[in-house]
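pipeline stage [seq->struct] | target=Oxysterol-binding protein | organism=Scophthalmus maximus | residues=722
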Amino acid sequence: MIGNGLLSPAVTSSRRGCPKPPTPTPTPGDTYKGWLFKWTNYIKGYQRRWFVLSNGLLSYYRTQAEMGHTCRGTINLATANITVEDSCNFVISNGGAQTYHLKASSEVERQRWITALELAKAKAVHMQAESGCRNSEVQSTLRTMSSKVEDLTTCNDLIVKHGSALQRSLSELEGIRVGGDMGEKTRQVTERATLFRITSNAMINACRDFLSLAQNHSKRWQKALQTERDQRIRLEETLEQLAKQHNHLERAFRGATVLPSSFSNPALGNKGGVSAKGDASDEDDDNEFFDAMEDPFDELSLASNPESPQPLELEPVRQRRTRIPDKPNYYLNLWSIMKNCIGKELSKIPMPVNFNEPLSMLQRLSEDLEYYELLDKGAKCQSSLEQMCYVAAFTVSSYSTTVHRTGKPFNPLLGETFELDRLGECGYRSLCEQVSHHPPAAAHHAISEKGWTLRQEITLASKFRGKYLSIMPLGSIQCLFDKSNNHYSWKKVTTTVHNIIVGKLWIDQSGEIDVVNHRTGDRCHLKFAPYSYFSRDVPRKVTGVVTDKDGKAHYVLSGTWDEKMEFSRVMQSSKGENGTEGKQRTVYQTLKAKEIWRKNPLPDGAENMYFFSSLALTLNEPEEGVAPTDCRRRPDQRLMEEGRWDEANAEKQRLEEKQRTTRREREREAVKAASTPEEDNYQALWFEKIDDAASGETLHVYKGGYWEAKDQGSWDMCPEIF
């Protein structure tokens, strides 16, 4: 059984289906508590944790006893997304750094938690909305009060104006000589008018003072409220950080490797065995990995030779783009197109650009070089077995860009090319050419100043099965190192795009890869585990074993093809118990695992840019001096990138018709010359077909001339394909 996880006894005791911890009992009020299994990492797998839901916050602890002093993490449900994955699994994420992958003991228990979480979230959102409404209400009241005071001010002005006129009229009336009673009356009216004006002014002043006071208090209240919110956010972040630091200190205190007492093995001394995570997909595996984490050999270097020269600091020669136009949201009736494609070869079916991403298949092949540093490090290795680990990690890394890339790359036209000249920035140059159209085949050649050469010829076969699309890459990839003359070759696994018609598209990679060193006989067997609805294992899991020509294991690799890979040196191996189908498992005792590769984070806004990586965003950037057959000059692809999809579809039809016309002309010429069929008669411009003696395969390899033609600016030999 191949495994790389460390599980609590509660997990290992239940090896099939969902784990069976005690069922939590709902408590009265807004608090809900219980045991859940939380995903930690691919080494430890799911771990049993005590969760408490209270006041819109979900917190967890290792044990119930920790509730009084050590919170391991808290997530605010008001801003969280709750997603159900399957019968027992669900995910809670706040869209930032906090994501909890959780597993309940049963589907019923999962539903209890989902219900409690949704209710708590709704209440938290409601409270947040009420707070916002109250704030808006205060602002609205203040605006109304301000308007009313303006009205009062206007009234005051009118009162002053008319009161002054009244005063003047009364003064004039007072100057008239009349009887005593009349004069007394006039004085009374004058006094009353004066009192009226004084009272009006006092009223206006009181209203203005009230408004000013209300505004000042409102500002203080808003500031206090915002301060409380900021403090709460900082407190949550601090608690999360403290929980991480606490875990780190605990691991450091225990040596980061001591296993629970239930896992101790007297026969191993201080070398703890790491138990594997049990699931149906692991039952057919023949190997089991053990970590000898506190072994003195851990001080040995598992990376490149320390005596090898340090890499040169290469300055970027140009500033490359970091964005492309956002993907338009165009509606397309998928079924109306795909219903006629079931069981057919997809490359022969004309498809609108709505299914595409604005990159060619040649550019997708060039994306394999995103983690070229792995080959740079491999070139410096003194040991061929260690070098094999870097080549294997490079093999896995090429799939990391596909996890969200559900768009189909453009099928290259025959003779189409793509150059990727990163000599000044990364020390390598790369060239791809479409060397065949039916079947579609592309040849790729990359050479580095660090002493390695990568070449591949890939033919894609694809079938639409109704619910999913299978893409089977045919052909091989080869890597040659100058210093050691090591010659590696391997093939790609099958890519499957699920939910083609209904549901959210998702991609899986599955199959097995044998990376072979033809000079030494070393071999690395990699297994890409297919996704299983019933599996409790980490999705996208990859495991591998590096063996010499005699079959002796020297390294094991483990990780996922969308995140990272680690490798460990094997110190001892032994035969374990029989697995399914009567196969005897091999148990490996290893040194502590070291990270060999980690995926680069996607750029900001990648979800609106076809989930392109930072490298992918630059591949279709216009460049001067490239060949007229380069993908960057392809008009339908350029129009699609600019968001002009209707024009792109029209241009795509024009190019495909032009290619068909060219092919018919070539067939007529072949008939006249009594030659071989058209595809065999076509000669690639920059590649030639050879029989590789080392691998025993026939493939197209670079014959030279492209970079010299570019330096001279001479492209007369290039066909006019666009």
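stage status: PASS
auto-comment: The two ends are 53 Å apart (CA to CA). The first strand starts at residue 32 and ends at 41.
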